[in-house]
Amino acid sequence: MPMALVVVRNAPMRLRGFLASCMLEVSPCVYMSPRLSQAVRERVWGVAEQWLPVEDGASAVMVWQDGSLPAGYGVSSLGEPVRELVEAEGLVLSRLRTAPSSDEETS
Fold it and tell me: Which helix (H) or strand (E) holds 26?
C-alpha cells in the first residue's frame, strides 16, 4: 500500500473533514497517508470529484507512489487553475493550460 498526498485549496469544510477522517492533516489543507490502498485512494478521489465546487477557485491535487509509472508516482488534479500533466524523459511535469487566444478561437 503506497503513500498518498492530497492538497486542497478553497475546499468546502465537508470535503476537508472527509479527508481528515481517512488521512492525516499534516498542515492546513495538506493530507497524507503512509499506507493507502488503491481502492481507498480511488474512493477518496471520487468523493473529491463530487464535492469540490466547480466555481470559487477550488482545487485539489493527489500524488501517490506507483512503481508501474515512468516517474514512479501518479498525479491527479481537479479545479482551477487547470493544470496539464506532461511526461518528459521519464519525469511528470505540471504546466498551466492556457486558454486559447481570441485569434486561435476564430481560426
Answer: strand 24-27
